[in-house]
Design goal:
With 146 residues, the chain is mainly beta. It has two helices and eleven strands, in the order ββββββββββααβ. The chain has a three-stranded mixed sheet with strand order 2-1-11, with no helix packed on it. A three-stranded antiparallel sheet has the order 3-7-6, with no helix packed on it. The chain starts with a strand and ends in a 9-residue tail after the last strand.
């Protein structure tokens, strides 16, 4: 994955992972539970989903925070991560069974997708090892005199 840092904002640049949609933003959850107390409307956790007698748990997709140190300067970056429901759902069609619709109070009605759900289990490790991935630093936030 490729990320661009501009000021205090990191954003994902286009990548080749067709099944993973990762959003990096400041966090807040308008639902019942808040992990971080930051002022926006991102979900910080996802409720489990049941289908055909099986429960699909999304604890691995809880919001998280990581602090990364710049490898060459005394700078560090604390990044708050939320993960979109796009990592375990797909665009809904009229042919998708109603019981596969993931319930979310949004206009973005999506269908649970088992393959994406399986792939989503890789995200915690990807986030934890982000500094080992290819990241581009835009040069903002450099220490004075460096």
């Amino acid at each position: 994955m490729t990320f661009l840092i501009q000021g205090n904002t990191w954003r994902r640049l286009p990548s080749l992972e067709p099944f993973l949609h990762l959003e990096i933003r400041k966090l807040n959850n308008p639902m019942n539970k808040r992990i971080f107390n930051l002022p926006d409307n991102e979900y910080q956790f996802w409720k489990s989903f049941e289908h055909s007698g099986k429960t699909f748990n999304f604890d691995h997709l809880k919001a998280c925070r990581h602090t990364f140190k710049h490898p060459e300067r005394p700078d560090s970056y604390t990044i708050y991560f939320t993960i979109s429901h796009h990592v375990f759902t797909k665009t809904s069609t009229e042919f998708d069974p109603a019981e596969l619709k993931y319930p979310i109070p949004s206009k973005d009605i999506r269908t649970f997708n088992y393959e994406r759900y399986q792939l989503s289990h890789h995200l915690p490790e990807i986030l934890r090892t982000l500094p080992e991935q290819f990241c581009y630093h835009a040069g903002y936030g450099k220490s004075e005199g460096k």
